[in-house]
Amino acid sequence: MKRVTGIGGIFFKAKDAEAMRAWYKNHLGIDVQPWGGAAFDWTDEAGKPVAGTTAWNISPMEGDEYAPSKAPFMVNYRVADLDALLDALRAEGCNVLGKAEESEYGKFGWVLDPEGNKVELWEPPPGQ
């Protein structure tokens, strides 16, 4: 079974999220959107779009979206078959959090790594 196929997103917290977003926009040219992040569409070596996007987001420190992790970041990994991977992780004794969730953006599941960092696993919708 193929497990992780790529990075789906990088999410981190900042003491002053708005100032950090402005810095990344002004100095690194990241097209920060009103929702607090940017979407990087994947392209091939010629710059032609291919199926896939990597999300990037900065959120305020006081949010609890990474709980139960205390880390100020979370990495979202793209996976091919979320349900099979979560079953395998459970069988291997990993700390899988709750049940998978499904939305128009695909299927999501979470696991804690050995140091308590929350890892998000994402199976994109078909065709993406």
TrEMBL record:
UniProt source species: Massilia terrae
InterPro entries the record matches: Anthracycline_SecMetBiosynth (IPR052164), Glyas_Bleomycin-R_OHBP_Dase (IPR029068), Glyoxalase_6 (IPR041581), VOC_core (IPR037523)
Segments forming domain VOC: 6-124
Pfam families, A to Z: Glyoxalase_6
Domain of life: Bacteria
Name the UniProt record assigns to this protein: VOC family protein
Signal peptide limits: none
PANTHER family, A to Z: GLYOXALASE, GLYOXALASE-RELATED
